[in-house]
Design goal:
By secondary structure, the protein is of the alpha+beta class. The protein has two domains: 8-103, Gcn5-related N-acetyltransferase (GNAT) (Aminopeptidase, 3-Layer(aba) Sandwich), CATH 3.40.630.30; 130-278, Aminopeptidase, CATH 3.40.630. The protein contains eight helices and twelve strands.
C-alpha cells in the first residue's frame, strides 16, 4: 500500500487560476476566472492552495474589510482528497492570515454541512441567508439606469453604513467589470438603494442589493431583471430584511438552499442587515 502524502499549503498565484476553476467546476459553484483574479488582486497574500505531490487539491481565499472584519471563502477540496483534513487545514490557514493582518472579526457564509465545523472553530450564528434562483421575467417594466462613475462615491458611502465596513474597491471593481449589472435608486436627491452584480459560470448573480425603502427594493430588482430577460439569475437573500423574499417570489424565483452567516470575534460592526435585500454572495459578504 502506498504511503498517503500530507498536503502542503502555499500562497495562490495567478498561474493557479485554472486549477481553482477545475475545483470550482467539480463543486458546481458559480464563480468565474474573473472572481479568482479579483481575489488575488485584492489579497495577494491572503489566498492559498493545498498541494499533494505537486497537484493542487484545495483552495481558500480571504478578504480584509478595513480590519473591522475579514471574509473566508472558496474553501474547495478535490473530492479525491476529502476526509484527509485538507478543508480544515485550509480554513485554519485563512483564519490565521486574517488574524495576522490584525482583523478584529472573521465572517463567512456556511452551508448546513459546514456550519458544525465552523462552530467548532468558535464561529457563532449571525443571521440566515437563502439562495433563490429563477429566470428573469420578460416585460417592459421600467427600472433605474445603470450607475455612472460619478455615482460610485455616493453608493460606496451608503454601502459602508449598511455593510459595516468600506468595500469601495469591491463595488468599484464590480462596476468596472460589468456596468450593466448596476443600478442606483434616488428620491429627492438622496440615494435610497443600489444593486450591483456579476456574470457567473451558471447564472447571473444579483447582489449586493440594498434598499432603504421597500419601493426602492422593488424598483432595483426589476431594473436588474429586465436586462437579463429569460436568463438564469441567482440571488442570496438576507433574512433580516422583511421584504426581499416576497419580492423574489413575486418575480417567479424559487428557493434553492440555505446559508448561515457566521462570525468569530466581537462583531462590533454588524452594519444594517435589515436594509440588505441580497448579499454580495458567500465569497464576498
Amino acid at each position: 500500500m502506498s504511503e498517503r502524502r500530507e498536503a502542503i499549503v502555499r500562497p495562490m498565484t495567478f498561474d493557479d487560476i485554472p486549477a481553482g476553476m477545475r475545483l470550482r467546476e467539480l463543486a458546481g459553484w458559480n464563480q468565474t476566472e474573473q472572481d479568482w483574479r479579483r481575489f488575488l488582486e485584492f489579497e495577494p497574500g491572503g489566498c492559498f492552495v493545498a498541494c499533494v505531490d505537486g497537484k493542487i487539491c484545495g483552495t481558500v481565499t480571504t478578504l480584509n474589510y478595513e480590519k473591522r472584519f475579514g471574509w473566508v471563502s472558496m474553501v474547495l477540496v478535490d473530492p479525491e482528497y476529502r476526509r484527509r483534513g485538507i478543508g480544515t487545514l485550509l480554513l485554519d490557514t485563512g483564519i490565521a492570515a486574517l488574524d495576522a493582518a490584525g482583523v478584529e472579526t472573521i465572517k463567512l457564509d456556511a452551508t448546513p454541512m459546514g456550519r458544525m465545523v465552523y462552530a467548532q472553530r468558535g464561529f457563532a450564528d449571525e443571521y440566515g441567508i437563502e439562495r433563490w434562483e429563477g429566470k428573469a421575467p420578460s416585460g417592459k417594466r421600467a427600472g433605474p439606469k445603470a450607475v455612472k462613475e460619478e455615482d460610485l462615491a455616493g453608493a460606496c458611502e451608503q454601502d459602508r453604513f449598511v455593510f459595516g465596513a468600506d468595500r469601495g474597491r469591491l463595488i468599484a471593481a464590480l462596476w468596472r467589470e460589468q456596468p450593466r449589472y448596476s443600478a442606483l435608486a434616488r428620491a429627492g436627491g438622496e440615494v435610497t438603494g443600489y444593486v450591483f452584480g456579476r456574470a457567473g459560470a451558471n447564472a447571473h448573480f444579483l447582489g449586493p442589493w440594498v434598499a432603504l425603502r421597500d419601493e426602492a427594493a422593488e424598483e432595483l430588482l426589476y431594473g436588474f431583471l429586465r436586462r437579463f430577460a429569460g436568463e438564469r439569475v441567482f440571488v442570496d437573500l438576507c433574512l433580516e430584511n422583511p421584504a426581499a423574499r416576497s419580492l423574489v417570489k413575486n418575480a417567479g424565483f424559487e428557493f434553492q438552499r440555505p446559508f448561515t452567516r457566521m462570525y468569530r470575534g466581537p462583531n462590533r460592526h454588524p452594519g444594517r442587515p435589515r436594509l440588505v435585500c441580497g448579499t454580495a454572495g458567500p465569497e464576498l459578504g
